[in-house]
Amino acid sequence: MPIPIHDLQQAPGALKRLPLRKAAALFVVAVSLCLFGLLYLQLEQSRRQDLAVAQMASSNLTRAMAQQAEDTFLAADLVMTSLVDWIQDDGYGAAQRPRLQRTFARRVQQLSQLHGMFLFDQQGQWVLTSFNDLPHDINVADREYFKFHQQNASTVAHIGPAIRNREDGEWIIPISKRVNDRAGNFQGVLLAGIKMAYFDQFFKSFSLDDNGIMFLGLTDGTLLARRPFDESLIGTSLAQGEIYQKLLPNAAAGTAMINSVVDGVTRLYGYRQLASYPLVVSAATSRDTILKGWYERAFQSSVIVALVILGIGLFGWVFIHQVRDGERIEKNLRKAQRSLEQIATHDSLTGLANRRLFERSLEIEFARGARQVSPVSLIMLDIDFFKRYNDAYGHVAGDHCLTQVAQVLKNCCQRKSDLAVRYGGEEFAVLLPDTDINGALAIAGQIRRSVIDKRITHSGSPTEYLTVSLGCYSFIPNGNDSPEVFIQRADAALYQAKNAGRNRAAVLSPEDGLAELMRSDR
Length: 522
Fold this sequence. Notes:
Blueprint: H1 14-90, H2 97-110, E1 114-121, E2 126-129, H3 144-151, E3 158-159, E4 163-164, E5 171-180, E6 186-195, H4 196-204, E7 213-218, E8 223-227, H5 242-247, E9 253-259, E10 266-273, E11 279-286, H6 287-290, H7 292-320, H8 324-345, H9 355-372, E12 376-383, H10 386-393, H11 395-412, E13 419-424, E14 427-433, H12 437-453, E15 468-475, H13 483-499, E16 505-508, E17 515-518
Parallel strand pairs: 15-16
Antiparallel strand pairs: 1-2, 1-6, 3-5, 4-5, 5-6, 7-8, 7-11, 9-10, 10-11, 12-14, 12-15, 13-14, 16-17
Helix pairs in contact: 1-7, 10-11, 11-12
C-alpha cells in the first residue's frame, strides 16, 4: 500500500534513505559545478586573452592607417601650400600658366597618391590642371569644396566628400585650399585629387577575413573610402553609427565590439581620429574569426567535461530516481497551493488584490495603526465614463483598459505595505498604512497624472483621453473603528470628485465630513 506523503517521514527506513538521496544529489551537483566552474574559468581566460591580442592588433592597425592617411594628406597639403603662395604672389595670368602647368604635372608625378591638381577661378571655371588638356564647358561652382572656400576665409586645407572627376570619371578625395589676391579677396580654389584607388590598394595590403571592414571617413560621418569597395556606399553617412555616436565623443581612439546594423555581423572595431585633419579611420575583424581557435578549444573541452558529468550523473541517478515521482507530486501540490492562494486573494484580470485580501489587510492595518498611533489612508478611484468606453470600444478593449490602470496603481505603490485593490468593476482602491492625508493626496495626484500620461484614447470623455476620479480619506484608528465606515467616507470623497466634474481628487475631512477638491490641472 502506498505511503501517504504527509506520513513519509514516519515510514520505516525513510530516515536512512533520505540523507543518502540528499548526499547523492549534493555530490552530483557539487562535482558538476566544480567541473563547470573550472571549464568556465579556463575558457573565459582563454577568450579574454584572444580578444586582448585582437584588440592590440586592431589598435596597431588603426594607428598604421591613421599614420598613412595623415602622411598622404600632409604631403598634398604641403605641396598645395607652396603653390598657393606662388599663385597669390605671381597670379595665374597667361604668362604664368605654362610654368604653373608644368609644376602641377611634376608634383603629381612625385606624389603617387595624387590623381591630379586643378586650379579654378572665382566663378568655378577651369584655369589650369596637371593634365595637358583643359576641359571645356565644365564648371565646378556647384561642388562642395568650391562653395566651402567661397564662403569661408580660412586658408586651412579642406577635405571634402569623395567625388567623381568630371574629366575622366575616376573617384577622388578632394583636398583643397582657398586662393586669395593680395588684398585677401577670393580668387579661386586649388584642388588636389587623392586617388581613392590609392587607399584601396593600401587597405588590401592588410590581411583581413572575409567579413573584415576598413574605412576612411570624415569626422561628420561621411564615408570616403572603404574595404571592401562598394561604390553605392561612398558618400553615405556613418554619423548615426555607434563609433560616431558613442565612442568618438569619449575617446579619440579605441576598440569596441559592435554588432553591425547593416549585415548583423559582430565585429571588433578599432578606430582613431586624426589629430591634424578631420578624418577618422577604422578597421574591424569579425568576432567569429578572432575566436575561431577558441571555439575549437571550447568545443573539445566541453565534450570532455560533458562526458565526465554524464558518467557522474548516471551514477547519481541510481540513488535519486526512486524519489522523482514523489518530488514531482509534491512540487505539483505546492504549485496548486500557490495558484489557489493567488486565486483566493487576487483579481484574475488585473493581478491586483481582491476584496477578500483588502478586508483582511484593513483589519491588520487598523490594529497596527491603533497600537502605533499612526494614520491609515484610503484612496478610492473610479474610471471616468467607463461605460461609454466599453460601448465605444468593446469589452475586450475595456478589459485592456482596466489592466493598464491597474499597472499605474502598481507603479505608484512604492512601499511593500501599500496595497492596490480592484474593488469592483471599474472601481479601485489603494490602502496606504502610516500615511496622512497629505501623503494620500500626493499619491492620488500621481495616479491621476500617470493615467493621463498613458494617453489612452477615450472618445466618450470631454478630454478625449481616459481619466480617473479619486477620493481620499485618512484617520488614526482607535481600536473600535469600522472598516465599512472607512470605505464609505473615501467613497463619499470619490463621489464629491465625480460630482465636481471628474478628473480630479477630493479629500474628505475626518472632522466635519467636508470634501476639499484638487482640480485636474494640479
